[in-house]
Amino acid sequence: MNSGPKKKIAIVLVGPTGAGKTYLSSLVAEKLPVEIVSADSRQIYKHLTIGTAKPPIEILETIPHHFIDYLEPDRPYSAGKYCEEARQVIEEIFARHQIPLIVGGSGLYLRALLEGFWGEDIRDERIRQSLQHRLEEEGPEALHHDLQKVDPEAAAKIHPRNSQRIVRALEVYLASGMRISELQKQKMPPPSFTPLKFGVTKPRKMLYEDINRRVDEMFRLGLL
After folding, report:
1. Nearest to 79 by CA among 46, 132, 123, 39
2. Which end of the chain is less packed: N or C, by CB atoms within 10 Å?
3. pLDDT tens string 56-87
4. Structure confidence at residue 118 as a pLDDT band (50, 70, 90)
5. What pLDDT does residue 77 have?
6. What pLDDT shows up at residue 127?
């Protein structure tokens, strides 16, 4: 009797910074034929090794990793683009009869990958540079005030000092005439796989102590 196509399941390991996701993923890799798909929006860039707490080189050389040291730091990227490319990589992992182990990371990247996300990449370098100049001259609160006028829904979700997201929302509006809050509702289809999610954490006091030790170690390794 034919039971139909085998269900595709991807393991998803989530948790806050310093919770031990990298260590746990290496333990999983000892037991299961996995390839790790990073969902970290900073580890995706080359060269930024110390400050982004990338996995140790011995782990990267032993276990296949994707989306670590993937881009040059000056290359624009987005959650929508990550969604498209990561889903393609995951399909390739399934084709190799391996198990995708998604480790994150950045909540926006994970949401894009697992739930679908607006993927259209609207950019205008001239507009962005103009906004960056205003940011330096007037500060993020002034730009946030402008965003409140043109896209109050987006402004309500963005902190007045989150300059990166404010500039991005204004860039999209000024370049296209469309509100980013509306565009983000135009989701991609759900993924072809079923995510099996595991959360890892530790007591808040211990987590903060470990993060403090991690930062001290970053400076010892030459972060500054």
Report:
1. 39
2. N
3. 899 999 999 999 999 999 887 877 788 889 99
4. low
5. 81
6. 92
* Bond from prior residue into 105 cis (ω within 30 degrees of 0): yes
Closest CA to 51 of 43, 40, 60: 43
Residue 108 pLDDT > 90, yes or no?
A: no
Which class for 86: exposed (0-12), middle (13-18), buried (19 or more C-beta within 10 A)? Answer: buried
